Amino acid sequence: MNETPRANRLHISIFGRRNVGKSSLLNALTGQEMALVSDHPGTTTDPVYKSIEILPLGPCVIIDTAGLDDIGDLGLMRIKKTREVFDKTDLALLLIEPGAGVDSFELEIKEECLARKIPLLAVLNKSDLLGKDIDVKEKLEKELGLSLIPVSCLAGEGLDYLKKMIIKHAPAEFQKSYIVGDLISPGDLCILVTPIDSAAPRGRLILPQVQTIRDILDRNAQALVVKETELREALQTLIKPPKLVITDSQVFKQVAAILDEEIPLTSFSILFARYKGDLNSLMWGLKAIDELQAGDKVLIAEACTHHRQEDDIGTVKIPRLLEQKVGSRLDFHWYSGSGYPENLEDFKLIIHCGACMLNRRQMLSRIQKALDTGVPIVNYGIFLAYMNGILERSLKPLYHELKEPCPERKITADGG
To answer: Does 137 lie in the same domain as 99?
Structure first.
């Protein structure tokens, strides 16, 4: 419970053909026997995740994938799982070995990383077999068009240098991102309104609330956490108004009615819209709401699976609000997990959760897939603020980031 969540870790993925030593590299980097190593090709099936600390980067997760040259029906399923890993990869390691050479598989991985703007390091495994013969290394570098970092997982050679290269090439934005820290100054007071209802996890706060508190403390600011029923009393005890009030989206309207108009207000979900995604593209998704007609398909996408409560936000509250707005029945579909349904183009609107369980690149990839198919996408917080008539107020703290939404643009990991 005290570990950094996987979604907040730098995702380092190991790609390559079968049996080039990807699992051995994972074990060598982590210092643990996390992945099964075998001379038989295709040992790795589903991606293997291992959390690790790489200082000064901090918490990372290393992902071992199946080979893209896998064969058979099961092999195709493994390849599909491997391709999905690209969506969440912050930095890629392409592993090859002297005897395998460079083929279309390696070049495909290189092109995929270039297209997605994923930093790529090429690693030559089993370098202990080369001895002083550098001709093989130079030949492979020429074929690949990249410099190779030689390592030997068996002998433990070259691993420290590889870690230094990982630190050097890690995306800069990964270390500079804030949830709310760039909107406040040291000493500022933020009030966090966190309802405790049947949907709240017993004995703890939900992840976005915990992460926001930590971000406020890292800024040397103060966090006052209250339920919506105690907000008015908490405000009366303050000498001066708070710098910012952040609320759970489900009590947006109630909180807005309590606060004086001059007190800045936003929500956890809106903050996560920019922290994990692209605020402008999610704002563009609102245009679809007024265009919905009876029977239109609406996808409600959540990144995690959880036990549904009687008045669940995704299955009950949002559908109810949307149908009241449209004035007729809609065709709702729900999808939980790290992917999307195959028929994405059939939907008129995607309403996505706050993405606290996804890393930033994965959420940006999901937004881009929606844009590529021409399907507007919005997240819970933006949707609920709009439906409650307080969107403009809740976006005021972020006005400096808003641009004219452009559905054709390509989104990169830094939101560009």
So the answer is: yes
pLDDT in tens, 251-309: 988 999 999 999 999 999 899 888 888 888 999 899 899 999 999 999 999 887 655 56
CA angle 306–64–305, rounded 5-degree value: 5
- Chain length of the chain: 416
Assess contact for 273 and 379: CB atoms under 8 A.
yes
Residue 252: inside a domain:
yes
For the sheet containing 244-247, what is the strand order?
A: 222-226, 189-193, 244-247, 265-267
Residue 183 phi, psi (nearest 5): -100, -5
Ranges of the chain with pLDDT below 70: 1-3, 32-46, 69-73, 75, 131-134, 173-176, 197-201, 305-310, 338, 404-416
Alpha carbon 176 to its chain's center? 15
CATH of the domain at 350: 3.40.50.11410
Name the DSSP class of 313.
I
CATH number, domain with residue 193: 3.40.50.11420
Q: Are 22 and 44 in contact (CB under 8 A)?
A: yes
Residue 61: give its domain's CATH number: 3.40.50.300
Summarize pLDDT for 213-254 with one digit per residue, the tens: 999 999 999 999 999 999 999 999 999 999 999 999 889 889
Q: Domain count for the chain, please give it.
A: 3
Whole-angstrom distance, CA of residue 356 vs CA of residue 8? 9
Q: Please, how many CA atoms are within 13 Å of residue 180, restricted to the half-sphere of its CB?
A: 37
Q: Which helix (H) or strand (E) holds 335?
A: strand 331-336
